[in-house]
Amino acid sequence: MEQVQLILGMPSSGKSTFIAALGEVLMSDDVESSFKTEFLDDAQKHMVALHDRWLTFQELDRTKTGQENWLSFHLIARDGTRALIQLPDLSGESIRDAVVTGLYPNELHDALADCNGILLFTKTSTKFDDVLLYEVSDLIQASPTETAAEPAAETTASSQPEDGKPTNDAKTPPVAPRFSAQDMPEQPKIVQLLQTVTDLRPAKRRRLAIILSAWDTVDDSVTPDEWFDQNRTMLAQYLESNESHWDVRVYGISAQGGSLPRDKKRLQKIIKPSERVSIVGHGALTHDLCAPIKWLMQNPSGPV
Ligand SMILES: Nc1nc2c(ncn2[C@@H]2O[C@H](COP(=O)(O)OP(=O)(O)OP(=O)(O)O)[C@@H](O)[C@H]2O)c(=O)[nH]1
Ligand SMILES: [Mg+2]
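Predict the joint structure of the above. Result:
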């Protein structure tokens, strides 16, 4: 049975690192996991390259637009059942550009429409993603019209440098940066992306595994569900209001085992590379990165 599970997320959200670590768990069979794989065919050169960097403690390069790779894995479950899944390594940049322009490349459009389930990545070390109200107010105050209207008394004094030569600075009002949709916070972009998916197949209820990546940077007294509700409030509210479209689970995953290069020495001491990785949530075994994929594949509503 062939399934397409999509890995989505904005740039630098941890997608490629997860794929590299998943490759190790699947191929080495060193840790207890839901699946293993016996081989990677030629088309998996990209996977091998990612995996080599991961094994040698190198951070991965950003996946560039046009460098996306549509990877497929031949999975074997513990009970011997076989399945083929596509788990593409998409560039966060191209996903983001599609979301903000509304122009989806054909391949991505079709994959969004037809995918069985989605692994959605958001990096826990990117905590404060929204623009705070006081920042908006600072921008408004710094806008040219507001500043020009203000009396010059205060600014004149500060514009007199120590060498006594006056500068033009006080007369040049600071200009707020132009709005760019690309720079919008992560959450509205993700909500927009998910809405596009549901618009493509409104009657379909899909499984969505939210992956909180870099989980090693989070205080372990908090659960993935709690962290998600506290730090991704907009996304959490959207999903709560759209239960008819999305069946959601939240997992915390450390695919790198720590931050590089800082934690390299500690990670080098771990003999089995698969033991660098960890996952928390929904009873997943400690190193079983396949757990969310298994859950996505068991969707009772079946393939699209
Ligand atoms: N601490 C920590 N950092 C991680 C982990 N996984 C990924 N990172 C860091 O997150 C950054 C982005 O990781 P990538 O896997 O390249 O992210 P991506 O989503 O593929 O990014 P694009 O290719 O730009 O779409 C890198 O600097 C990684 O080192 C992790 O488990 N722990
Ligand atoms: Mg990448």
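The pocket of guanosine-5'-triphosphate (ligand 1) is lined by residues 9, 11-17, 59-60, 62-63, 91-93, 121, 123, 213-214, 216-217, 254-256, 258-260 (CB under 6 Å).
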